[in-house]
Design goal:
Blueprint (H helix, E strand, L loop, with lengths): L5 H15 L11 E9 L9 E6 L5 E2 L1 E3 L2 E6 L3 E8 L6 E7 L9 E7 L12 E9 L9 E6 L7 E2 L1 E4 L2 E6 L3 E8 L6 E9 L4 E2 L1 E7 L5
Parallel strand pairs: 1-8, 9-17
Antiparallel strand pairs: 1-5, 2-3, 2-6, 4-5, 6-7, 9-13, 10-11, 10-14, 12-13, 14-15, 15-16
Length: 217
């Protein structure tokens, strides 16, 4: 009986195993390090949010936006600090560890929920409209009366109050489309319509200027 040396048998088995193992063929595609989805606590639209990432404490870099999803980094491993900012919401950060794979990084998927920003509003009452009323030829006006009303409303117009010289305050914290009417003794009345906006806390004051013409004799 013929015997095969043990070391030769082992080498033969290793050769066969090496031939049967498939080689990994890596493609040239750049894989995202982190994909980020943003969710608003109040269901708001976050498509205009800004999302950045920094690798291992480096300088922030903008992530690529795809609607409400972002791709942060390509083939970058390490600790990526993801930061999201949006108007009306608190900024949020999260550290994500991205590992190297055999061919590409192992993409991490992150969902960040953004909380509504807390705004401490002041108690002051902000004028809706400040109306500057002057004579068209620079004359001093007497008997000036200025009123305001919501357009398409059946409510009676309300009087505006003096604010400074020649300026009248019309409404407080009233937003929407308002109709302002100004008149003075011996002059033709004028009407202007203005839309008053508002932010989280107060109206955004609109300024109007009335130059009243003399009434015909």
């Amino acid at each position: 009986m013929r015997y095969v040396p043990l070391f030769g048998f082992v080498a033969f088995i290793a050769f066969i195993a090496g031939c049967s193992r498939p080689e990994t063929a890596c493609d040239l595609m750049a894989v995202s390090s982190v994909t980020v989805d943003l969710v608003a606590e109040d269901g708001g639209d976050l498509s205009s949010a800004t999302v950045t990432y920094a690798v291992d404490g480096g300088a922030p870099t903008a992530c690529d936006s795809f609607g409400t999803s972002w791709s942060c980094g390509y083939e970058q491993a390490g600790v990526l600090t993801i930061r999201a900012e949006a108007d009306g919401y608190d900024a949020i950060e999260r550290d994500v560890t991205v590992a190297e794979g055999e061919c590409h990084v192992e993409t991490e998927q992150v969902v960040l929920t953004m909380a509504v920003e807390f705004v401490d509003c002041t108690q002051e009452m902000v004028p809706s409209v400040l109306a500057n009323v002057v004579g068209s030829t620079g004359e001093v006006l007497n008997g000036v009366a200025v009123t305001w009303a919501r357009t398409n409303s059946e409510a009676a117009p309300q009087a505006c109050t003096p604010y400074t010289d020649d300026v009248w305050q019309c409404g407080e914290e009233i937003a929407g489309e308002l109709e302002i009417f100004a008149v003075a003794d011996g002059h033709v009345g004028q009407t202007q319509i203005v839309t008053v906006g508002a932010d989280t806390c107060h109206v955004l004051t609109e300024g109007l200027r009335f130059e009243l013409e003399w009434a015909p004799d």
